[in-house]
């Protein structure tokens, strides 16, 4: 791409590059400062230092973490969250991939209409469904159980996920399953034995995105779970830090240690799988 | 013929679970939600028809609703504007063939991974007038140290500006869109002597306009759902300056047990979203450029 | 554990008799093992442990006839219990805020407990603080058994007072004295522009705190109707409209507003953060708190503290405050009505419960003054004041909100107070607007 350009332009472009990097540096600092502050505060030894300007703790106090872990306490809610996330993720992956496959490959009357409905459901604001869904789950006696947080995901798995799988399967060459069909494979076997192995990258993407959704969810657990021993971890933190009457003597470093602990799993998964993650956002975003 | 009938049935077999989920968890609740607003309902006693009374009350008697409507509308405009603007700007910067693009992108994405609740809690503490990070830094530089949740405009601004932190997905989408623009178009423009500003207007914006529209629509729907941030940071205050429609809906439905009244609020939210989406699509005809069609 | 009052004995006897009748057409299924009862309340971990121990003790006393267990519910307690009732999965006995009890009673969610009240002789004023029933009765019908009473006090950081040479608060203190001390106790020790200590603190977004503060100023509407035990909360004697305008409330409101913006001795508002942490972290020198707050303050060992009666307007004026009490109520849909009523009575009035409670003041006058209740490790010198103050208060008022739309009225008060505290509304307008909202919400009637 190197072409003969006038010298002036080259200088200008070098200056421009410096400006770009400087801007990026400033912006990335602004973007990450809250998180750095969160981590550094969580390691500070005491209440007063927690509020000081210095980002470096005078003494790195790792014991804040076990203290917070025991005080919240983390194990129960953590186990609940893992349980919910695992099942909801499993249900939505299985269900959305099957539905996505049908929309991508199977020809059936009314397919386009159904697909249009699928797209439209993405635009329905969830607010209108909050109360009726709550009443429905109440009628089913599902309140204060994990069912409202899990079962619906087994029936479709979410419009965005179906859409993403459909897009991905469409990009797989159709000759493969046509050949299998000629060999007498049933549609389900084609799906299970040919398509599924090929769509593992998409599955990974959806899994990573879904993990964030389920792990970080606040509203649904907040509405549907009542008993303290059923809390998800985000809900538990909300309950103990914000209950005015049943209040705990919270200190800033404890609160921040809790914040770091609840964010950590999502962080780890994000950094391991960031490529897939970003790929997924691009696919759901762009092709919409 | 036989095979194709089988295939027809098979198609429905495969999407059957989704159809059930759609009917039970989406269409039925959405339909019920549209009707419930005309009833008085407290969960414990049977619903009672009240006609348009809830809607009359919302618009003529209930100052909290009008305030929350205005808060939500302002939040949509400012936060979507800021977020889309910031994301577009960042994507443009990252598209300047920077080194280690993946790393930059990851770093800018990182704040968006933090759970909404944890982020709200973090910001609540960061904005503490005496001890929060923001005022500590401002004081260090000798700036003013306002009480961020102590005035209506500041509290609203805090929650709005905070939404820019989780702009990561938008950046990624914009960036992918920018990278999808054929290089030849820029080269052609350069040969035609277009300056950078002109290239932006003549090439980048038209080419990215479908992505822009997408981000606007999704952004507006998303902004209507603001809940956990005001709940955790301000509980809707001060003087309801951060009382969003969803927070007000929640209070009515679950604290005051006015399910019907809350459903009426939900209906307004539905109409609001519908109106916004239709407006955006209609308006976008003027500026969205689809490479395929034209 | 010694059982000293006849009440505990009565509970056991009653439970035994319940067991005996259970084989008949009663709903108590003792032949299938113990009757399972679920008890619920809000609160922090310390409180939860306390209630769990109470439930275990009740089960023990029942000699295997009842198996009571505690189910802990926090944050948005009322919403959660409502949800449980709607779902048919509610606790049999639960604590309910006095703000909601009348509404729930009207909605038919609570079981009547009038007989239980009479059986245990709880209306005998010589033994019990019987007037506490005001928030859980509707005429002669009772729908709850009071938990314990919460009285408001002036809490102060003794270490800070001594450090800055300020005299300790006394029974004579007026709000002017509080202000003078608070101004001396608002200090920026290291000169970094941040106050390390504030004189006074506001529990913003907690309507009950505002209420207590206003009443302690001797607002006319608090003193006016002292022929009655109770006042309908923010509403006037006619129970129809607000009363803030015709009262001394404006002076109280101005004190708060000036305290933040003019005299600068009140710690400014910090979003939805729980205000209570400030005192225990040593950030404020004085605070108006309910006695329940002392339970966790006792655990603080960074500084010394003590309590004083709620301040008054002028020397010689009466101490005016309110007592709040949350009733134990019985779920109308419980399968085991008899046992559940007894559990509620046990939680209300059993000595085992009352002697070990730290949160609030027990209902029994005898227990309230007993060593078991008062002589506990970590208690400050004036700890007994939490009981003495009950007699000291010349116009005790009981939290009673048997008016419609109580939760919304509470929200309206919070909102108007917020306007005052962010300096966007004058004290006079605040009072007028509260009255307007109270009238509007009462006029809407019971849903």
Examine the coordinates and then state which fold CATH places here, giving the name of the CATH topology of the largest domain in chain A: MetI-like fold
Any idea what the shape of chain C is?
globular
The termini of chain A sit apart by 33 Å
What string gives the helices and strands of chain A in order? HHHHHHHHHHHHHHH
What kind of assembly state do the chains in view correspond to? heterotrimer
The CATH class assignment of the largest domain in chain C is: Alpha Beta
What is the averaged pLDDT score of chain C?
81
The helicity of chain C comes to: 25-40%
Counting helices, strands and paired strands, the structural category of chain A is mainly alpha
User: What name is given to the CATH topology of the largest domain in chain C?
Assistant: D-Maltodextrin-Binding Protein, domain 2
Explain this structure to me?
The complex is a heterotrimer of chains A (288), B (294) and C (447). Chain A has two domains: 7-61; 73-247, MetI-like (MetI-like fold, Orthogonal Bundle). Chain A has helices at 7-42, 47-50, 64-71, 75-105, 111-121, 127-139, 147-150, 159-170, 174-182, 187-198, 200-216, 219-224, 233-242, 252-272, 274-286. Chain A is built from 15 helices and no strands. Chain B has 13 helices and two strands; from the N terminus they run H-E-E-H-H-H-H-H-H-H-H-H-H-H-H. The two termini of chain B are 40 Å apart. Chain B has one domain (53-293): MetI-like fold (Orthogonal Bundle). In chain B, a hairpin with a 7-residue loop joins strand 1 and strand 2. In chain B, helix 12 packs antiparallel against helix 13. In chain B, strands 1-2 form a two-stranded antiparallel sheet. The model of chain C is unreliable at 1-30 (pLDDT under 50). In chain C, strand 1 (35-41), helix 2 and strand 2 form a beta-alpha-beta unit. In chain C, helix 1 (6-21) packs antiparallel against helix 13. The chains are: A mainly alpha (288), B mainly alpha (294), C alpha/beta (447). The interface between A and B is large, with 87 and 91 residues.
């Amino acid at each position: 791409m190197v072409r003969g350009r006038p010298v002036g332009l080259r200088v200008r472009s070098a200056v421009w590059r410096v400006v770009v990097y400087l801007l990026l540096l400033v912006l990335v600092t602004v973007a990450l400062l809250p998180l750095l502050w969160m981590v550094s505060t969580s390691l500070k030894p005491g209440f007063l230092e927690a509020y000081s300007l210095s980002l470096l703790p005078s003494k790195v106090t790792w014991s804040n973490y076990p203290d917070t872990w025991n005080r919240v306490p983390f194990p129960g809610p953590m186990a609940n969250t893992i349980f919910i996330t695992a099942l909801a993720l499993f249900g939505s992956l299985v269900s959305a991939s099957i539905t996505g496959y049908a929309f991508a490959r199977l020809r059936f009357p009314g397919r386009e209409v159904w697909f249009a409905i699928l797209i439209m459901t993405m635009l329905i604001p969830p607010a209108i469904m909050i109360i009726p869904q709550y009443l429905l789950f109440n009628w089913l006696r599902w309140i204060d159980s994990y069912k409202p947080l899990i079962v619906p995901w087994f029936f479709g798995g979410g419009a965005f996920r179906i859409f993403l799988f459909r897009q991905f399967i469409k990009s797989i060459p159709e000759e493969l399953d046509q050949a299998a069909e000629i060999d007498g494979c049933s549609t389900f076997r084609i799906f299970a034995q040919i398509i599924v192995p090929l769509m593992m990258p998409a599955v990974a993407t959806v899994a990573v995105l879904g993990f964030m959704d389920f792990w970080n969810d606040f509203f649904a657990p907040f509405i549907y779970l009542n008993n303290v021993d059923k809390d998800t971890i985000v809900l538990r933190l909300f309950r103990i830090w914000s209950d005015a009457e049943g209040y705990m003597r919270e200190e800033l470093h404890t609160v921040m240690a809790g914040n770091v602990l609840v964010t950590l799993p999502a962080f780890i998964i994000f950094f391991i799988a960031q490529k897939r993650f970003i790929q997924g956002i691009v696919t759901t975003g762009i092709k919409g | 013929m036989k095979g194709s009938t089988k295939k027809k049935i098979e198609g429905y077999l495969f999407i059957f679970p989704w159809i059930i989920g759609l009917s039970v968890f989406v269409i039925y609740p959405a339909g019920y939600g549209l009707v419930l607003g005309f009833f008085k309902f407290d969960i414990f006693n049977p619903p009672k028809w009240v006609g348009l009374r809830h809607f009359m009350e919302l618009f003529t008697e209930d100052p909290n609703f009008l305030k929350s409507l205005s808060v939500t509308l302002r939040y949509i405009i400012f936060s979507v504007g800021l977020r889309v603007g910031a994301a577009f700007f960042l994507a443009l910067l990252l598209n300047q063939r920077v080194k280690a693009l993946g790393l930059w992108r990851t770093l800018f994405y990182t704040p968006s991974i933090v759970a909404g609740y944890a982020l709200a809690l973090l910001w609540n503490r960061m904005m503490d007038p005496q001890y929060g990070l923001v005022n500590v830094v401002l004081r260090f530089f000798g700036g003013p140290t306002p009480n961020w949740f102590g005035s209506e405009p500041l509290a609203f601004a805090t929650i709005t500006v905070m939404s820019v932190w989780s702009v990561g997905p938008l950046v990624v989408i914009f960036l992918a869109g920018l990278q999808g623009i054929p290089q030849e178009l820029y080269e052609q423009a350069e040969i035609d002597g277009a300056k950078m500003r002109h290239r932006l207007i003549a090439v980048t914006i038209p080419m990215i306009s479908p992505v822009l529209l997408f981000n606007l629509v999704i952004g507006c729907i998303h902004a209507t759902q603001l809940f956990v941030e005001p709940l955790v940071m301000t509980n809707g205050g001060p003087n309801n300056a951060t009382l969003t429609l969803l927070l007000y809906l929640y209070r009515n439905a679950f604290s005051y047990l006015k399910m019907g009244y809350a459903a009426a609020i939900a209906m307004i939210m539905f109409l609001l979203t519908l109106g916004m989406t239709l407006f955006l699509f209609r308006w976008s005809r003027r500026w969205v450029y689809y490479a395929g069609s034209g | 554990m010694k059982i000293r009052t006849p009440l505990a004995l009565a509970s056991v006897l009653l439970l035994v008799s319940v067991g005996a009748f259970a084989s008949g057409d009663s709903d108590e299924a003792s032949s299938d093992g113990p009757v399972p009862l679920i008890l619920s309340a809000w609160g922090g971990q310390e409180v939860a442990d306390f209630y769990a121990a109470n439930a275990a003790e009740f089960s023990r006393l029942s000699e295997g006839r009842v198996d009571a267990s505690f189910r802990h519910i926090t944050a948005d307690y009322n919403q959660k219990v409502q949800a449980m009732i709607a779902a048919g999965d509610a606790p049999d006995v639960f604590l309910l805020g006095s703000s909601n009890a009348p509404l729930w009673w009207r909605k038919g969610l609570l079981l009547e407990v009038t007989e239980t009240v009479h059986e245990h002789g709880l209306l005998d004023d010589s033994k019990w603080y019987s007037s506490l029933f005001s928030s859980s009765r509707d005429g002669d019908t009772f729908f709850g058994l009071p938990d314990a009473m919460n009285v408001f006090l002036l809490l102060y950081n003794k270490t800070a007072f001594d450090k800055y040479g300020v005299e300790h608060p006394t029974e004579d203190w007026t709000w002017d004295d509080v202000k003078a001390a608070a101004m001396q106790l608002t200090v920026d020790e290291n000169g970094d522009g941040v106050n390390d200590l504030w004189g006074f603190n506001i529990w913003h977004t907690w309507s009950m705190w505002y209420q207590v503060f206003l009443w302690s100023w001797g607002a006319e509407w608090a003193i006016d109707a002292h022929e009655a035990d109770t006042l309908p909360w923010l509403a006037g004697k006619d129970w129809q409209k607000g009363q803030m305008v015709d009262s001394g409330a404006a002076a109280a409101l101005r004190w708060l507003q000036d305290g933040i913006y003019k005299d600068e001795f009140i710690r400014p508002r910090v979003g939805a953060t729980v205000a209570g942490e400030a005192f225990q972290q040593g950030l404020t020198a004085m605070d108006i708190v309910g006695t329940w707050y002392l339970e966790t303050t006792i655990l603080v060992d960074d500084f010394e503290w003590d309590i004083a009666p709620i301040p008054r307007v002028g020397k010689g004026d009466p101490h005016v405050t309110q007592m709040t009490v949350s009733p134990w109520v019985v779920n109308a849909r419980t399968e085991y009505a008899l046992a559940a009523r007894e559990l509620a009575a046990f939680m209300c009035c059993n000595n085992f419960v009352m002697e070990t409670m730290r949160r609030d003041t027990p209902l029994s006058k005898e227990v309230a003054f007993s060593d078991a209740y008062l002589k506990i490790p970590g208690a400050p010198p004036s700890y007994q004041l939490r009981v003495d103050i009950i007699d000291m208060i010349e116009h005790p008022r009981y939290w009673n909100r048997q008016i419609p739309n109580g939760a919304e009225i509470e929200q309206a008060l919070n909102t108007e107070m917020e306007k005052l505290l962010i300096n966007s509304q004058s004290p006079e307008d605040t009072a007028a607007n509260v009255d307007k909202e109270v009238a509007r919400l009462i006029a809407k009637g019971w849903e």
